[in-house]
Amino acid sequence: MMTTGLKIIVLVKQVPVMSQVKFDVDRGKVDRSSADVEINPFDLNALEAAVQIKEKTGGSILAISMGPARAELALRDALARGADRALLLRDRKFAGADTLATSYTLASAIRQAEGFDLILTGEKTVDGDTGQVGPELAEHLDIPHIAHAYKLDVSDERLVAVCDMDGTSYTLEVGFPVLVTVTKDANTPRLSTFRDKVKARQVAVEVKSARELAAVADAAKFGAPGSPTWVHRVLIPSAEYRKGRIFTDSVDEAVAEIVTEVFRPYHR
């Protein structure tokens, strides 16, 4: 495979503006209707990385999102910023998905795509903050993945990524296909012009439902029914000043007391 003409997929998620969002404590969910929405900021870094690679090697970018009808706005923003095509996975059967069901659904759609060389995602989303979807997607697709990349270079049919792990940098080199999660330090996302936005409105956003994924997927693994994890309770800790404590007991007694204090909120 030549590096020219890379087929790149970028995952895009529409998230609430977290500075405005409220939490539905009773249901254990984010009240998404309480805030404006935007593209997950980390996904913008992934998209910018994709555009820079396309500018260097050629190729195409497909932006994929899973969400309700209004998520099309995020995809149109992605088109205005440099994506060539956009695909929205929209179906009530996708609702309530945890990271495993989300990554499975995305993998199912990607299997139906016209092949790919590189998948780029933000390292995490600001509304979930798990950083799990990217690596899980790579596992579903049975391809290698690289996490926390802040520098990417594509040459000689290989991708070289410089990554950050708890303040330590390391460099990885891999062939295609591969999935990479990108940090906010990778670049500064470009802004779209008015002309870019007008052009993006003229591109048709493809839409796929659960039924259209049936040939490559198990519908029982979609949405809430396919999610093995769920929120049991949402706790909003009270604001307290930092407190110090000197332990003079034995090590075992000190550890036991620390563990008790750490987990006390979850037993209320």
Largest sheet: 9 strands, mixed
Total number of domains: 1
* Distance linking N and C termini: 58 Å
Q: Could you report the average pLDDT, rounded to the nearest whole number?
A: 88
What global shape is seen? globular
The CATH architecture term is: 3-Layer(aba) Sandwich
User: How many helical elements?
Assistant: 6
Biggest sheet strand order reads 11-10-9-12-8-1-6-7-13
Say how many strands there are: 13
Helix amount: 25-40%
Going by helix content, strand content and strand pairing, the class is: alpha/beta
Level-1 CATH class name: Alpha Beta
Q: What does it look like?
A:
This protein has 268 residues and is α/β, with parallel strands linked by helices. It has one domain (6-226): HUPs (Rossmann fold), CATH 3.40.50. It is 26% helix and 26% strand. The chain contains six helices and 13 strands. It has helices at residues 41-57, 72-80, 99-112, 133-141, 194-201, 251-263; strands at residues 6-11, 14-16, 22-24, 29-31, 37-39, 59-66, 85-89, 118-122, 145-155, 158-165, 168-174, 178-182, 206-208. The protein has a nine-stranded mixed beta sheet, with helices on both faces. The protein is globular. The mean pLDDT is 88.
